[in-house]
Specification:
The structure holds 2 protein chains of 2 kinds. By secondary structure, chain A is α/β, with parallel strands linked by helices. Chain A folds into 2 domains: 210 residues, 3-Layer(aba) Sandwich (Rossmann fold), CATH 3.40.50; 31 residues. In chain A, 26% of the residues lie in helices and 29% in strands. Chain A is built from 6 helices and 13 strands. In chain A, strand 8 and strand 9 form a beta hairpin. The longest helix of chain A is centred in the first third of the chain and has 17 residues. Chain A is globular and about 65 Å long. Chain A starts with a strand and ends in a 5-residue tail after the last helix. Chain B is built from 8 helices and 18 strands. Chain B has 2 domains: 169 residues, Rossmann fold; 113 residues, 3-Layer(aba) Sandwich (Rossmann fold). In chain B, the strands form 4 sheets. A 7-stranded parallel sheet of chain B has the order 7-11-6-1-4-5-12, with helices on both faces. In chain B, strand 16, helix 7 and strand 17 form a beta-alpha-beta unit. The longest helix of chain B has 17 residues. Chain B is of the alpha/beta class. Classes of the chains: A alpha/beta, B alpha/beta. Strand 9 of chain A pairs antiparallel with strand 13 of chain B. The complex binds flavin-adenine dinucleotide and adenosine monophosphate. Flavin-adenine dinucleotide (FAD) sits at the interface of chains B and A.
Chain lengths: 259, 313
Amino acid sequence: MKICVLIKQVASEDSPLLLNEDKLTLKTDSINFVSNEPDTYALEEALQLKEKNDATVTVCTLGPESSRQVLKDALAKGADNGIFISDDGIDTSSPLSIAKTISAALSNDTYDLILSGLQSNDIGFSQVGLLVAEYLNTSHASLVMGTEIINDKSDIKVKLELENGWFQWSELSLPSSLTIQSGINSPRYATLKGIMSVKNKEVKEYTKNDLAISEDNGYSVVEKFTPLKSKETTTIQGSADEISNQLVDVLKNKLRIVS
Amino acid sequence: MKILCFIQTLDGKANNNSLESLFAAQEISKNNNAEVHAVVFNKDVATKLSSYKLNSVIYINNSELETYNPEYYLKSLELINNELNPDLLIFGHSYETRDWVPRLSARLDKAFVSDCVNVQFESDLHFIRPIYQAKLNEKIKLNNQGIVSFQAGSYSYENIIEGSCSIEEKSLDLQIDLTVRPGERFKESAEGVDLSNAEVIVSIGRGVGKIENVELVKSLAEKLNAQIGASRPVVDAGWLDHSYQIGSSGQTVSPKLYLAVGISGAIQHLVGMKGAKNIIAINKDPNAPIFEISDYAVLGDIFEILPKLIEEL
Ligand SMILES: Cc1cc2nc3c(=O)[nH]c(=O)nc-3n(C[C@H](O)[C@H](O)[C@H](O)COP(=O)(O)OP(=O)(O)OC[C@H]3O[C@@H](n4cnc5c(N)ncnc54)[C@H](O)[C@@H]3O)c2cc1C
Ligand SMILES: Nc1ncnc2c1ncn2[C@@H]1O[C@H](COP(=O)(O)O)[C@@H](O)[C@H]1O
């Protein structure tokens, strides 16, 4: 079996998000870049499927030079090889453009399974893995909370998370593209041996010129901005003592939670 | 301009998030006189929709569409789109929408602006969607025909404008080789805590850092006679059992006081707790989205504030 995991490099949760004058790009110097958290669950699921079903795991990212790091991290955890697609000249503001580019690179091989995160923590389209399913003509499922290869490796059984505490099992024909929900497994850490192995693993490289992709994807970002507050909020700040005193006053005298 | 709004149904009822998006369609139409059509796979809901101010209701009468299967849904909307040629397809951003509408976007080669919270009418129609977990917004313009979905709660369906319109009934040829075979829906055995009647909830977020620190928040909860809740990452990491999770994939609560400790305020969390009467959030990031819906925004470090607070209570 061949499994491909899509991993994106994003700003960590605690990175300051400062817009440049163009109101479109962020100041990157202060940002700490990490693997998109949901994708680490997708990688772990792929590695567990590999252990059970004798598979190879390829990890693929589209991004700037710095995003090679997400491939290294995944290879250190046990992925077999990588695909790096440089975003130079590619419109990464539009989901169609990202998915067309990734699909073009993946179409040079045939994968039985493509796993991606449910959503990227930066732009958060919650689309890319499903767009890839359409472009590569595979079955798909989203919000996956469990997987099991069945029927002599021709199908996969998945557990889906639905709204309001409901779940559902679904059977899909392979090849398939699944978007993985967080909490499906406990992502592993890289071992020292794994880290040492990275330099011997192959990473295929693609640039825009290698991939025939259309330019207009029908989507323009006009600007980015900080949302406005909608509720009257009392801000409590100061030293820990001051804050604590004010909070006790609120809890006792305003909300009457404690006496 | 022509708008087609998809109304999702379950057990013969319209999905509220779809109805909210129908109102969004009416709002857009108010500004640019767009035609608004609704498409639905359930007859009773079609009848209901015919009492709204719309240009038409399209009711697709196919047994394949009685329960959700992404492939039949996709094929149906592909066919209806090609017949009607709408400039804008509108959806509520439900889990089902997440599952099949991206694929529709690729199939029709129409950009999909997902999870919008607002529309602005400037020289062009602009769609606002949160990015970076709602810490920023982006304003999007569609260059040609496109697809838009609206986040739950962006509009109120109670504002839908009434009227009357005709129902056009159709049956489609949905012969396709299925690659997806969905089974029955089920619930996991309901064990664990029920927070629906809790008066005071102290809720633990990822900002608490590690499992050892959960005890610190628990001692605050004890002082306040409160129950404990949690955000999804806390539960995913195994710091607390799943039944403590609050949000779109957990419990919905409406206590007198909700005290959020180290929770950023992602929409999927907010939908589970924004009905609380009073919200206090402790967070060290002045731009944390949770502060936007808080009555008291406590700006500071959990590990400096909580020990003092516990001591004083
Ligand atoms: C389909 C779907 C369903 C989901 N369902 C749910 C759901 O039901 N419930 C849910 O909660 N989430 C759900 N999520 C996840 C959701 O999108 C967020 O990822 C999650 O709510 C974030 O949790 P958090 O606020 O605890 O963590 P983070 O977003 O990481 O926030 C941590 C916060 O702690 C603050 N902090 C850190 N250290 C300190 C300190 N020392 N002192 C003070 N503050 C500090 C930080 O400033 C930050 O604001 C869902 C997501 C999807 C896509
Ligand atoms: N540039 C990218 N490179 C690799 N994978 C990506 C990229 N963008 C999105 N993905 C994958 O698609 C998932 C959903 O992303 P999104 O549609 O942006 O919410 C992510 O969790 C990744 O698994």
